Amino acid sequence: MKKILIFIIFIIAIMFVVKDVTAKEIIVPDEAIRLRILANSNSPHDQYIKQKVREKVEYQMGTILSRTNSIDDARDKLKKSVKPLSNIIEEILEEEKEKIDFDINYGYHYFPSKEYKGIVYNEGYYESLLVIIGKGEGNNWWCVLFPPLCLIEAEEATDVEYKFFVQELIEKIF
Fold it and tell me: Are residue 11 and residue 59 in the same domain, yes or no?
């Protein structure tokens, strides 16, 4: 019985070590451009509007930035896309009968620290395309446009989740 208890404690200790090692800090490279969409508030309706805007903007970004090979080319395309994206957002708000202002601009904007799927993204000012819906006081959605990390992720239909076999076994036992 002692051996089993020691073995279980050993396995739990390994799980905590592995979990701490997998949460790594990644710095988005300087040669990256982000996209951030801020909702008016956290109400379900405002989050729904943000989601609709995100879907259309992300699709347009995929079209606009396809075959973009350099950061300079991406910058040029993004600067030219502000007005067309503004028109798309206006259409969405009209479709939803939403009478709310929004702002869209390209430049350097603040991003808070964020942990996503075990990766820590540092806070700071980043080159980005920023969409603020209404007061912009709700939860945001963001991704990396160039290199096109979020655009690649958007094309993937499923999330891949990796599990630690021993952790699954212990979770089943307890």
Answer: no
